[in-house]
Amino acid sequence: MLLAHAVTLAEARSHLAALADNAVTIDASIEYDRVLLQIDFIHGDLIPAISPVTVTDRDVLFTVAESAIEDLATHGIDGLTVELVLDMLYAAREFDAP
User: Fold this and answer.
1) Overall pTM surpassing 0.90 (yes/no)
2) Nearest-angstrom CA–CA distance, 58 and 70
3) CA separation (Å) from 43 to 26, 39, 72?
4) Which of 43, 54, 68, 78 has the CA that lies 20 to 30 A from 85?
5) pLDDT single digits (tens) 69-78
């Protein structure tokens, strides 16, 4: 895994974890965790650590996570797989609506 891929993956993982922590409902938190687990499954054992994210605005967290997941396609992750993960992210967002 190249550094750029690791940075993108770490960004996606960190912001998904922050979304799970800041979710309005437990169901939303679980769904964000499922997205995180799917990204980890795709990458196997090559996963960077989650870094703390100081932002708590769920809209900002969602936008950054969405962008990072989209960028995974530029690092060799199959486009269909990226679309499926994005669909999971959008479904999680549905649970997080106030």
Assistant:
1) no
2) 18
3) 26, 6, 11
4) 54
5) 999 999 989 9
